[in-house]
Amino acid sequence: MSLAIDAGVSAPTLQEAMEFIWSEADLLDSKSYAEWLELWREEGIYVVPIDPETEDFTATLNYAYDDAEMRQARVKRLTGTSAISVTAAARTVRTVSRFRQLEVEGAQIRVRCAQHLIECKRGVQRLYAGDLTYDIVRDAGSLKLLRKVVRLINSTEALGGIAYLL
Question: What is the pTM of this model?
Answer without folding.
Answer: 0.88
